[in-house]
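Q: I'm writing up a methods section and want to include an example of the input and output format. Could you take the sequence below and give the corresponding predicted structure tokens, formatted cleanly so I can copy it straight into the document?
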Amino acid sequence: DLATRAQAVRHRASWQELSRRYVSGKKLPFEFYTHPKLRDLEANHRFTNSENHTFSLNLTTEHLIEASLTHYDAAIASGVKPEVARRLLPQSMYTTIWSAWQPKQLENFYKLRLDSHAQAEINELANAMNSL
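A: Here is the clean output for your methods example:
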């Protein structure tokens, strides 16, 4: 996901990333990571319309992701450029990155990210890389 990518690219390696400016959700479907603590989360949201009527909705994390995608698709359909519309996509969206490492850089990455104190998602990435 984008948050884990942000942690990874802090390491001084050579990075490239799939650009959602040029690759739409139609060419490559959007996928999302939802942390286990957020999967069953439901919150009550209050809205007031232009006529001052207030209403409430109980929304789950999945509802918010779906609403973001619907809003993104509507923006694209109305002529908003993808590089602007992608700002509507949640941080939980998966991305694809490629990297090239010098041995010392990779050694430092593993030292920090394989540690038991590392955030679970970056630790999982480091373990997957290390297993290759």
